[in-house]
Structures are given as C-alpha cells and as structure tokens.
Amino acid sequence: MREVVIVEGCRTAVGRRKGMFAGYRPDELAAVMLDNLVNRSGVTKSSVEDVILGCVTQVNEQGGNIARTAALIAGFPMHVPGVTIDRQCGSSQQAVHFGAQAIASGDMNIVIAGGVENMTRAPMFSNMPDVKPSEKLTSKYEIVNQGISAEKIADKWGFSREQLDKYAVQSHERAFAAIEAGHYEKEIVPVDIISEDGSFQTVKVDEGPRENTTLEVLADLKTVFKEGGKITAGNASQMSDGASAVLLMSRDKAEELGLKPKARIVARTVVGSDPTLMLTGPIEATRNVLKKANLTIDQMDRYEVNEAFAPVPLAWLNDIGGDPSKLNVNGGAIALGHPLGATGTKLLVSLMHELERTDGQYGLLAICEGMGMANATVIERL
C-alpha cells in the first residue's frame, strides 16, 4: 500500500447561522475554497483526479452533487470529476478516508477531499421534511434527537450541568485566545462579500465565539431538549456556514513534483455505535485507530474531538484517559461552530497547523455522527 500525504489544507472562516455567509451560495463558497487550495499547493487543477466533498443537507443549492458543481465554478477542467458524500458530521473526514484509500490502492495519485455546509441556506433536516423513521427501524432501536442522546450521555457518565457549562466556557476562552494569537490566520481563506446594501467586506475571522460567554450567562439558559435536563444552546455546537478541504497525494507523486508534504496519514477507521446514545462512537473509533497505528494516546501531541455537545469530548476524555490540555486546544465547535459537512477537514486543517506551530509529531481527529457512527484519523507531521 502506498503512503498517503497531505500536501496542503485550508478552510474558510466559519460563519454563524444567518450571519456573514447568509447571502453566499454554498457551491460558490466551496469553489472559492477549492480555488485557493490548488493555488496554495502549486499543483494544476487539471492534475486533480477527483474532488470528494462531504455535505449533509444535500438540497437546494447543496443538491445536484455540489462537489462537481463547485469544481466547475472554481475553473477545474471538465475531465476532473466530483462526488458528494454524507456520513453526517464526519462527512468530510470520510471524504479524506475515501481519497486516501484511492491513493493507497494505486487508483489515483492526487485527490481533493473536503466539505461544505451552509446551514443558513440549506437548514438542517430540510432534505427530509416530515419524514418519520421506518417502523422496522424503531421496532429495533430507540431513535431519538441528538440532543436527547447528549442528555443520555450526560446522565450515564454523571456529568453535571455545571461541568458541561464550564467546558463550554473553556471552548470560548480557547477560541478567543487562538484568534488573538493569530493561530487560525494561515489556514483561513479570505472570502470577499458584497452585502445587500452594496458594502464590501473580506471575511477571514471565525464569527462564532461570543465574548459574553461566562458561567453565569450559561447558567441562565433554558434546556432545549429535556425539561430539567442539562443540554442548552450554550453547551452545544453552533449551526454554522463554511467550507474546508485538503489536497491528498501519494508520497511518490509529491516527491516527483518537488512538493513538501505537511503530514502523512498514519491510520484511519470508521465504526458504528449505539444509535440511541449515538454520539459515543469516537471512544471506540479512537481505540481502533490507535491500534491500527500501533500508537498510544500518550503519543498523541494534540487531539481534536468534535464538540457536538459538551458531554461528547468529556465522555471521550473519561474513557480514553486523554490529557485535557491536549484536547481542542484552540477551541471547538461550541465556540467556533459546526458546519456539518465541512467540520471534518476543518478540524484536520487546524490540527495540522497546530502540530506545525508546536513542533508536535502525532495528531488524532475523531468525530461522532448521526445514527451512531464515528470516524477517527491519526496523522504525523512531516
């Protein structure tokens, strides 16, 4: 099997739902990101053999295979194909896995893997209005909203409301510290926006973090999914808009082109987990991917575990025995947002830059997914 490397990666800033990208078509936003990715890498658009994008709500402007339409908008020649996939919140991470598998097997040499989601223009669940789960499914499993799953995890692991809120405050504090220190500047693609009033703005800073996020403020928020519960809008991820991608290549091809890879993919996995608890998959996925990599959690210099809800990374820390100081060090989805289909490669790009910034060697990425699944990836900085 051939070695797969990441030559380049970038992302747009993440906009709040109904925020700065509310007037920006997702296919055009993805196109801006694809164009910048290729320009940064130094490869030609014609040399890319596939564009694989994750997108969860494939409806309206996100329908019709947005990977293909975005590539054409970005000026890729017509011979470059595109495909759009949905593995829920881990869609773009799965895109990386599919691209890496194509390269490792020898089918391809150069693949773009990423994702896009504009949750303002294609709201969550708008691709399945009024659709109820099959009775043949509900007869086997208790199918619940993800927020109820988060409540169940908080109860099972014994997390208090205060613990969840403290974690959320930390996410915002870390995000603001990272933005102030300029940690995200290199990875963010500036996007020019013309507002309805004709004013011009260049977007290059994440919109999600809220300065007034304190424990006192969060304590006043009402629970969303369960009366007397623990999950609020303050300790859950934000609905967001954004795009992200990485350029994958075989190690041999990178050397042939005189390119210096940023990282190599050491191991990857995907697992199914309890569809009722739904969000616990990163725990088993982490165990699996570390076993495949023949590495331990102690050897990971940084880990990104998506903050779908605060109980998710906290349960992961509890069961994996990770170091809290290595987890989501620059903030997570609670503060920065969660543009579903784009989150996987967004986090991968940030992880890659964090390893470079801190001279770290190994990084771990794990994301929980709807209906009980999770992807996990281990990378090594080169």
Characterization of this structure:
The protein is α/β, with parallel strands linked by helices. The protein is built from 12 helices and 13 strands. Strands 1, 2, 3, 4, 5, 6, 9, 10, 11, 12 and 13 form an 11-stranded mixed β-sheet that branches. A two-stranded antiparallel sheet has the order 7-8. The longest helix has 21 residues, at 161-181. The chain is globular and about 60 Å long. The two termini are 19 Å apart. The mean pLDDT is 97.
DSSP strand count: 13
Spans of 5+ residues with little confidence (pLDDT < 50)?
none
Tell me what portion of residues adopts beta-strand conformation: 15-25%
Structural class: alpha/beta
User: Helicity range of the residues?
Assistant: 25-40%
> Which word captures the global form?
globular
In whole angstroms, how far apart are the ends? 19 Å
Q: Radius of gyration, Cα only, in angstroms?
A: 20 Å
Order of helices and strands: EEHEHEHEHHHEEEHEHEHEHHHEE
**With helices defined by DSSP (H or I, 4 residues minimum), what is the helix count?**
12
Q: How is the biggest beta sheet arranged?
A: 11 strands, mixed
Mean pLDDT: 97
